[in-house]
Every structure is written in C-alpha cells, then in structure tokens.
Design goal:
Blueprint lengths: L2 H11 L10 E14 L2 E12 L10 E5 L3 E11 L5 E6 L4 E3 L6 E2 L2 E5 L8 E12 L16 E13 L4 E6 L6 E5 L2 E11 L17 E6 L1 E4 L2 E4 L3 H12 L7 H11 L5 H15 L1 E2 L2 E2 L10 H7 L1 E2 L1 H14 L5 E5 L18 E8 L2 E5 L19 E6 L2 E6 L9 E10 L5 E10 L1 H6 L7 H11 L5 E11 L2 E10 L4 E3 L2 E5 L20 E3 L3 E10 L4 E5 L4 E5 L2 E10 L2 E10 L2 E3 L4 H15 L2 E6 L1
Parallel strand pairs: 1-10, 7-18, 17-19, 25-32
Antiparallel strand pairs: 1-2, 2-9, 3-8, 4-5, 4-9, 6-8, 10-13, 11-14, 12-13, 15-16, 20-21, 20-23, 21-22, 23-24, 25-26, 26-28, 27-28, 29-30, 30-38, 31-37, 32-36, 33-38, 34-35, 35-36
Length: about 625
C-alpha cells in the first residue's frame, strides 16, 4: 500500500478527532530558493495534496503569479487515486494565462490550471519553477497551510544565498526557528514543519490570515525593478519610500492658481484642507495602477492632474502636493487593508497594500482616504480603522496605529411609531440614523435606485404585506438617516378577541452563532457598536394589555443589553439598547456569548397580548 493510500485510510478510520472534518491533507509542500546575487533567484516548488471531498476541490487549482521579472518554467502535474494509480498527467501546455485584474494597468499576470477531480479522494502533485530577476525585495513567503480544514504532514523551506548577503527572516505562528549553515561562501536557511493540525473556522474568531503559520524572508540590500535599495526596519523602509516620492510633487500652474482661488478666502487650515479634499473628489477618480517599480512608486502629481485619475499612491501624492501648495504639511502613509498588525521587528513591502494621507493640524491627526473623497474629511473607514501604518517622511518611517471609533460612536438610533388597528393592521413610521461604522454599512443605500431601496427596507422591517408610502435616505458627514412610512396589513396576529403584537419590527434577522463545546479560538469582536431603539405603540380603542414581558438587563464582558417597557394610556413605550464591546475575549466565555446572543434575539422577537375589553 502506498503512503498516500495509507494516509487516506487513517483519515477515514480516525474517529472523534479534528481529522474527521478535514477537506484536504497537504502530504508535502517544499520551496527551494537559490539566490545567485541581488539580481537573480530561482524558486522551485512542489506540493502534494490529498483532496478528501468536494469542499477541498479548490486545492486542485494551480495558480502562479508572474510578471515580466518572474517567469514560470518547468511545470508538471500528476493526479493519482487512493491506490497510487495514475489518473492523469498535467502538462505545461494545459496552463492558461490571464491578465485579468481589477487594476487599470498592471505588470503582473497569472498562469493557472482549473482542474476538477473526477472523484474523491484524489492526490494531486504539482512541481514548477519560477525564475526572478531585478525584483528581489523579498523572497517567497512560506505559508504551507492557507485554508481552513486542511492539515499539513510535512512542509520545508530552503533558501541558499551568498554569504555576503544579509538575509532577514521572521516567523509567525510557528513555534520553532530556522537553522542556518554556511559552506563555500554560501549560507543556507532551512525550516521544516510537520504534522500541522487543521484550523477550524469558528464564529467570531480572528481572521484566518492572523492564525496561519507564516515565515517571511527578505534581503537587507536589494535591487527592485532596477532601483537599488536597503532597509532592515520600518525607519529605513520609510526612507526608501520617501526617496520614491522625490520630484513627483510638481503641480501644473493652472492647478496652483485653482487651489489659491479655492482657499484664499478661508480663514483656517482645516477649512482649506477640506476644500481641497472636496476638489480632489470632484476632479479625479480612483483607478488602480500597478506599473513602474513594481507598483511601489506613485504617478507624478502632474500626471494625475492631467489625466484625472490615479491609484491610492498617485491620488495621495497629488493631495499631498496640493496641500503643500497652500502651506499645509501632510505625510504619505503606507498601510494594509488586510493586516491589522504589522510585524514591528520585520519591515517588508509585502505586508502593505494601500496608501493614505496623514494631516497633522491643531494638535489633531486627520487621516484622508484619497481614493474615495465621498467619505467625510478625516473619516477612518473600517478597512483601516485600528490598523498599523507607516508614516513616511524625510526622517524615515514611523510605525503608528490608526484610531478606531469607540463602541458608542458606532451608533444606530431607531425611532419607530406603530399605530395598530383593531384588525391587526399597522401604520409604521421609522427614522433610523446610523453613525460611523454603522454608517458604512448603509452607504450602499445611497447608490441604489428606488426599487432596490424598497427591497432593502423590506429586509430591514419585519412587517407583513408592506405598502411603502414614503422612503428617504439622507447622508450627512459620517451619518445616514433613513426615513420611511409603511402600512402593514396584519402586523398583529388576531385570535378571537386577542391581538398578538410584535414589540420591535426591526432587528428580526438578529441571530446567535452555533454552540461549540470544543471552541479553541478566542472570541474576536472587530467592531464595537451600539443600537438603541425607541418604539412607541398606540393600541386600538377598547383593548388592554393582557400579557407583557418584564424589563431585562443583560451584562457580559463582551456587551450589555437592556429592555424596558412602560404604559401611558393607549401608548406603550419600548426601549431597547444593545452595546457590543470591541475586543478579544477568552474562548472559555463562548457558551455565555452564545447564550447572550440568543437572549437578545428572543428579546427582539417579544410580543404583547392585547385583549378586547
């Protein structure tokens, strides 16, 4: 019996372990990098993956990023069944090339093979080589486990380079270190991992990228797209980035005149900056461009001005140049929309994918998203809020963490009036104001047509047979206010002389995560927020409350919830208040977390019983 067949048998026979729910097993993954000098390296790859079911089918797809400086060579693949019988050989001639990208212009392309296994289990072996020239700012990352429900039996990384080169490395979520040996003027850095258990996807856990075992390797001194550079920390990284900005801030004379025309009558720098930010949004649009020095260097301010478009680098540099023209200092800032944390002791360009602008003014820091000037001036959106960033200046790079809005500032306040008739129909008016992070969730409403907005309201309100007589969406700074008037036929259920009336027609989609007795990951709440509801129900003449819920207060480490109800003649006033706290909480609290969320869902779904007198 082959080793693969034995592995499969053990996987299927093993009961009561995490292996039981796997989708795939990486039998072997190996990366061997041979670096000849600062300009040339060859990386050889091999992966052997056993796919157990259709949920692991993505592991059969081969994708290799390439560019004019990264060439794919010597590809081959092999497909075998559980007994080791060869089902198919895959050839380089079967690869397809795509230059499809969300970017307007890009140096990169991909070679890929969309292979679908005919049955399961199946083992796929891929071997290929990538030759790189003039872009060795980093070596290939080592990430042997890149998805949930995939285990790894053996993973190796081997990097050989001249002993004269200083090679930096950093390990993340790996509990062993590399070994370094030298021989005949060469240094070899090696890392081997074995028997990595599968990572399980759990509700409200850290993002997968923060859990994966990763190893980073980079030369201190490099040549990147023909440009020589050197950095070994974030300070020196910032100096390199700053050097790429030099001479790229010159503005056309017409733009200079326009800027002074816009700002000469304004009394404060803040007013001037806001006016220029508005001008940026009105005169440019975002189009991603990854050309020139690997997409690291921005287009010149003049190019962006003349064309009217740019990527995050170009638009940020343009905004910086315009502020500079009216005497306002600002700083080009590099950040990641994916990685919340940057490795503090390992600087690398690959950890970053976005650029914003910092404007220090009157003792405050304003962060400008220049790719979307429709966002309010200084608004820190959810893709960067709380993320680490590198501020670039003539003094080098400075590692900072962007602010995140306090839980109570991410507020959604709903005011609902419900007038109920004796036959259970209801006239409902809703005014809902959403701030900051909750405002971002509502931004799609601004781009919807009337039909789409009506459909969105039908999902927001739990009211049967709705007729919508009025619907309005109004933005203001980092807030959106929705106002609606609705007629709901049979809002309350009638049974004889009784009406069963829902107290809260919103939040009906609120759900609790599934219970999990084997929870291993800490509870992660990325965004704290607060929802407050003020609901006034007017009951029909001749009816009185027969049954009603009691006031409730729930308090846990991760949040609080209060429900309060009071009567005033025919009016019933209901107040709901939910506050969820951003942060990380021990996995041991997960049963309480599930119970808390279930209780909230039940409280939102409460009814009162009215009886005809």
């Amino acid at each position: 019996m082959t080793r693969t067949a034995l592995s499969l048998m053990l996987l299927w026979l093993t009961a009561g372990t995490v292996v039981k729910a796997q989708n795939a097993v990486v039998e072997e993954t190996a990366i061997t990098v041979e670096c000849d000098d600062m300009k040339h390296a060859t990386a050889r790859y091999k992966t052997v993956v056993t796919i157990l079911n259709e949920h692991g089918a993505d592991n059969a797809v081969f994708v290799c990023p390439c560019s004019k400086y990264d060439k794919l060579k010597d590809f081959r693949g092999l497909v075998t069944d559980a007994n080791g019988t060869v089902l198919r050989k895959l050839k380089e001639s079967e690869l397809q090339r795509t230059e499809y990208s969300p970017y307007l212009a890009v140096d990169d392309y991909r070679m890929f093979l969309n292979y679908t296994p005919p049955s399961y289990p199946v083992t796929i072996t891929y071997e290929w080589t990538v030759e790189s020239r003039n872009n060795l700012i980093e070596f290939p990352w080592f990430c042997p486990q890149d998805d949930y429900d995939v285990s790894v039996r053996k993973a190796t990384y081997l990097l050989t380079a001249p002993q004269t080169m200083t090679i930096r490395h950093k390990l993340k979520n790996i509990n062993k270190d590399v070994t370094i040996t030298t021989d005949k003027g060469k240094q070899t850095i090696a890392l081997e991992l074995t028997d990595l258990p599968p990572l399980k996807k759990e509700p409200n856990s850290r993002p997968l990228r923060e859990r994966l075992p990763m190893a980073y390797f980079a030369p201190e001194h490099y040549i990147y797209y023909g440009v020589e550079g050197r950095f070994n920390d974030w300070k020196s990284f910032g100096l390199w980035e700053y050097s790429l900005l030099q001479g790229r801030d010159a503005l056309p004379e017409a733009v200079k005149g326009k800027l002074h025309e816009l700002t000469n009558g304004l009394s404060s720098d803040l007013e001037k900056a806001k006016k220029i930010y508005q001008f940026l949004g009105e005169s440019t649009r975002y189009v991603a461009i990854l050309l020139g020095i690997g997409g690291q260097q921005p287009a010149t301010a003049s190019e962006v001005s003349n064309s009217g478009f740019g990527d995050c680098k170009g638009l940020t540099n343009y905004m910086r140049a315009m502020l500079q023209e009216v005497g306002i200092k600002s700083y080009y800032t590099v950040i990641s929309t994916n990685n919340r944390r940057l490795l503090p002791d390992f600087a690398s360009a690959g950890q970053l994918n976005h650029v914003i602008l910092q404007v220090p003014m009157n003792g405050k820091e304003y962060w400008l998203e220049c790719t979307n000037a429709e966002l309010p001036f200084g608004y820190v959106h959810e893709d960067i809020a709380g993320h680490d960033a590198v501020i670039v200046s003539a003094d080098g790079g400075r590692l900072v963490t962007l602010p995140a809005y306090a839980d109570t500032l991410n507020l959604m306040k709903s005011e609902v009036k419900i007038d109920i008739s004796a036959d259970g129909d209801a006239d409902i008016t809703l005014q809902q104001k959403s701030d900051n992070w909750q405002y971002e969730n509502q931004i799609p409403l601004l781009k919807m047509d009337e039909k789409e907005r009506v459909q969105a309201l039908r999902h927001l309100l739990s009211a049967p047979q709705m007729d919508i007589s009025q619907l309005d969406i109004q933005p203001s700074e980092a807030s959106i206010t929705l106002t609606a008037s609705v007629k709901s036929w049979k809002y309350a259920k009638t049974t004889g002389s009784r009406l069963f009336v829902p107290l809260c027609p919103i939040h009906q989609g609120y759900q609790a995560p599934k219970a999990n007795d084997e929870r291993t990951e800490e509870i992660c709440i990325r965004h704290g927020y607060q929802d407050t509801d003020e609901i006034v129900l007017t009951i029909p003449e001749g009816y009185a409350i027969e049954a009603k819920p009691r006031d409730v207060t729930l308090k846990e480490d991760f949040g609080t919830f209060t429900f309060h109800m009071e009567e005033d003649g025919r009016q019933i006033r209901v107040t709901n208040s939910l506050q969820m706290h951003a942060g990380s909480f021990p996995a041991s609290l997960y049963p309480q977390f599930v119970a808390f969320r279930k209780s909230i869902a039940n409280l939102y779904a409460q009814k009162i019983v009215l009886k005809k007198r």
